[in-house]
DNA sequence: CCAGCGATTGACTCGTCAGTCAATCACGTC
DNA sequence: GACGTGATTGACTGACGAGTCAATCGCTGG
């Protein structure tokens, strides 16, 4: 019987949601635990009833989101009817839509964990690398089928691809890129076009020199 | 007359160099000012004789290095005999060599400032954007001359290009990429090849559909 | 109506550091 | 060889914030 007004799960969620807003607004290191409690409208101590530490709150938020992303990547990879380029487009679209849908959460994931691998991400390097690995697999298959060039390693290609997306998100987070639905869609196209098509104008078939 | 053993400038340098090592090893937020003083072999208080705060030490390190980089980019751009691709290759080479030459310093610049734009970089967003702007100008000229495709904005192309380099540095910093001279040279090639040439195998001239 | 138990509260403890400052040192100068 | 100035020292202060805990609340089942 759901304990009256709010269940334990709901309360926990309420704290997590408040934490997202606070982390996004003030940054993880800068905010106090009391800020999160205030934002959630609960007492300071209650936070420690649901989480072992301030760190655990961030960990939870990150993993919740990141796991969804990794799973999405793997699902996309499984759709054998898609070309590598289409798979990359689907992933790009998903991540950018994630940002569009909940910018605060993505900001926390990117700024406080992914891009802060020193402090925090070190703990999550494995999770981060799993994502790279899955993307690399997609690219590897694309190379095997002849769709993609195999002059670079799939590993590096995956890093560059993900880097381009992260760079775009960072651009929005720090107001270096215009926001708005058109911008989101435009950038989706840019990411795939840049990574797959490259900057060079057409004529320039093979790498420099040769035997 | 150089005050005996060490001049003021030398002492200052000594502290900055120690700070680089400490920041690289422990991270800016995690280390104590006393760690820097110890590493430099000077008393705690002396640090405040040369710098107003712990932050100012990091600011100084970042700006010292970043300014050199921005200037390099502008110098490269001025060499009109180079193609856009060659300019991008020169910039890539310079940044990667900077890392090879002083990994600790580049680690601090990237991890503690550039990629931590929330905490710190916010102060330095202007400096960071200046670099993007200079790269964008190179790309813009390349587009104007017909060397590069102009289906994406120079601004976005610059972000992706710089993002690819940063991603590579991050890969080395967190041991996701093998170190060693060959790796450095190989990645230089990868960056330019990926960004300019794209992942697609040749035949695929124009964007999808069309009028 | 009461006992029991998890949820909830927030004042308090306890460490940790950034930054200060008065004292001391080591030159160069006259 | 005394004086003054800037370099150097490190003990100390003050603020701050994570995590604790004993007390209270409000169900629920008997």
Automatic annotation (TrEMBL), chains A, B:
Gene3D superfamilies: Homeodomain-like (1.10.10.60), Tetracycline Repressor, domain 2 (1.10.357.10). Residues 32-51 bind DNA. InterPro entries: Homeodomain-like_sf (IPR009057), HTH-type_TetR-like_transc_reg (IPR050109), HTH_TetR (IPR001647), NicS_C (IPR041474), Tet_transcr_reg_TetR-rel_C_sf (IPR036271). Residues 9-69 form the HTH tetR-type domain. Keywords: DNA-binding, Transcription, Transcription regulation. The keyword Hydrolase does not apply. This is TetR/AcrR family transcriptional regulator. The lineage of its organism: Bacteria, Bacillati, Actinomycetota, Thermoleophilia, Solirubrobacterales.
